[in-house]
Fold these 2 entries.
Entry 1:
Amino acid sequence: MKPEPITAAPADAAARKAIKPVVCYPVETLPRPDLSAYRALRDSLELVETVIVPPREAETWLVPAGHFCRILCSEGPQVGDLNLFNAHDLKERLYTGKTRALNGTHVGLGDQLFSNFPYLRPIATITHDTLDWYGFDEFGGAVHDVIGTRCDPYTHNLLSHGGQYHHCCHSNLTRALAKKTGMAPREAESHVHDVLNVFMCTGFTRDTEQYFMKASPVRPGDYLEIFAEIDLLGCMSACPGGDCSAEHSSDTAACHPMVVEILRAKGLPEGWAPPPVNGYDGTHGL
Ligand SMILES: [Zn+2]
């Protein structure tokens, strides 16, 4: 528990706290995707490849720019921890912090996923989400967060006083990336980054503002669909927490495989072009 405050509130404390917030990044000036142009292609999608992500393991796949990718719940409620890279340059990768700042704590239909500095551009657009009905529940929970980082053996070691567990999402992603690239595990690990928690239901407790999870509402047949704005390398772990209703970082939760489909449309969205890397000149005033 956090300690009680030791500083006396100033006389105008109530007035200071009553100031209304403003949204950090008003998105009226953010270029928005023409969602209808993307969705117009969805009737013509042709399955190119299917990838199975085994439970408590991770798998990689490629999505060419202009293709779609679906992440499906196949056999039972299961959370996936997703990393996305520029397929030609692993230094460019999903930046959940700025994606969160621009879209909110959880992403869904019409949101774009952004890459890190100095690239900062949309690398994927969410074109369908069968859980979009969920919204926010009475606890403040919602699905597909860009808040959590990924379960990892280091935090587990701290919280369990020395535990060694090798199938956290962080380790699963590391092994899968090492296998795909031929990198040594330590090098592959350095490319693993904060994830999009596909299907995970999370929020912050109203009383202590702590990150919480609860059983995912996902069911077999549900899927999250993205459009690749650039050539993407995807890497996803089927979390050892299963539906993340109780715990992760152990082998006790029921876990299920997940399915990834790569799909090709009969054309490209009208008016679409791959987004260029960010236009800032990079001189930082020097
Ligand atoms: Zn996990």
Entry 2:
Amino acid sequence: MAALKLKPGVVTGNALTELFDYCQENECALPAVNVIGSHSTNAALQAAKEAGAPIIIQLSNGGAHFFGGKFLPKEGHEGAIAGAVAGAHYVRAIAEAYGVPVVLHTDHAAKKLLPWIDGMVTAGEAFYEKHGEPLYSSHMLDLSEEPLEENLEICASSLTRLAKIGMTLEIELGVTGGEEDGVDNSDIDDSKLYTQPSEVLQAYETLRPVGAFTVAASFGNTHGVYKPGNVKLTPAILKNSQDAIIAKHGGGPKPVHFVFHGGSGSTAEEIREAVSYGVIKMNIDTDTQWAFCHPIKAYMDDKSDYLQSQIGNPEGDDKPNKKHIDPRGWLHAGEKGMAARLVQAFKDLGAFGKFS
Ligand SMILES: [Zn+2]
């Protein structure tokens, strides 16, 4: 297997397609981590550095808004556009210091968020004019709630624009269960939680002539972590979809780059099977939120007696608590927890050390 030549920084265009092909050939996938600011971004970059692998850093609409600051208005899309642009510039400015190649991506955009996408692509086109590459590697459109024809029609039109500046599009077929970023699909009809291979075939035939794309297919995966046993994970749907395309169009062995949403809470065995059928990206959010939050709770519990006032603790009424209060102490505990959880994700996905 020829080694992949990737530079630290943001991976776009053909280099991104080559990276995903390399993942399929080597049966591994990259974690796609939702970040909300510089702390979670730094944790993600550190994990990738330790794993010796590229990482996918993504912002949801809410995450982009938070990156810019929750103080910005929620109404309209300006706050989330500005936050997404600022986040991308932050990643571009710091990735080289960590020596890490990054796929820069945005998460779910349903129909009502198309103006958000439009604003980011406009910024991407302006960046392309100056630098000859896009700001982001890819965006996601999640039109899985719309009829399939409409979903693919809008995706094709968007991809036409993205392809011109070397960008890839992630689409969604079928609905990921559970709840994330304020979108609650936990009551959805079970049959919608499973993508049909015929739908993947239709997406392939529509989008392949237009540009590079990845497919988030539903095979019983859910956002969030729930008690096991509610929905059955059926990764064979991915294999059947690849086979349906090969049967009609030849090529292969894995004509589609698949994305696994709702990776949190999955077993290593389930992940391995999905990866073997062509998954190149697995989203992880709930598990890293927990990994960031829990060490901070432990810190607060542990230091409780030192966090009641600025002065005065069990060592004396006049002792200052400055060093315990300093957010760098507890935020870094969260960063370390998140980085460690992501290193585990690289191992589960078979990507640890596969890129050096
Ligand atoms: Zn998702």
